[in-house]
């Protein structure tokens, strides 16, 4: 299982979001506290973020551990953003180890991270993915089907593969969508914005755990958590 995190709020540096908290994504890459599948997340890492005046999200991904990326650590304090999605990867057995298999994936509008696994044969063959990794194929499917219907997509895939784990995390710069389907997820609302993450990055008592099989929807108007109910 991978670990992922999203931020929506006032400008915040990538270092402040990803590297500096006591149990940041960086720490979760080698010592996650709530990870149920896999021990470390050393098969790659990625961050995608939205920059003012630019519609396309920017991405930095690599198929090496986050702790090895000294170049990222040196520039991360200088990049600030109102919205980012980041992930560290523990590759599912049989999946390729390559930059293009690492989240976040994008269609040029949305960023998507997948924490979980799925039988790739249940995915429609129509969507074009940048990697044969199941997460990249799920991303292509969600982008094609429409992220606005994320809840229905996850229920449908969960029905096709009952063993699937489908914790997805998406953002388009003004909205964050996340699902719990087989793994952990928490959120923290502060005066500056909202963090949605696989696990809390500090011991702030404000963190709220999301129950399994739920959809989290965050916009400037607020945050909602609704059950995912297969129809
Ligand atoms: N199945 C995905 C991959 O191989 C995600 C793995 C994970 O959540 N650990 O990258």
What does this structure look like?
This protein is α+β, with helices and mostly antiparallel strands. It has a single domain (3-227), classed as Aminohydrolase, N-terminal nucleophile (Ntn) domain (Glutamine Phosphoribosylpyrophosphate, subunit 1, domain 1). It has 5 helices and 13 strands. The chain has helices at 14-19, 25-30, 70-75, 134-145, 150-160; strands at residues 3-13, 45-49, 58-62, 80-88, 105-106, 111-117, 165-171, 176-180, 186-189, 193-197, 208-209, 214-219, 222-227. The strands form 2 sheets. A 7-stranded antiparallel β-sheet has the order 3-2-4-1-10-9-11. Strands 5-6-7-8-12-13 form a 6-stranded antiparallel β-sheet, with helices on one face. It is globular. The two termini are 27 Å apart. The mean pLDDT is 96. The structure holds glutamine. Residues 1-2, 38, 89-92, 95, 101, 114-117, 133-135 line the site of glutamine. Glutamine (GLN) is lined by residues 1-2, 38, 89-92, 95, 101, 114-117, 133-135.
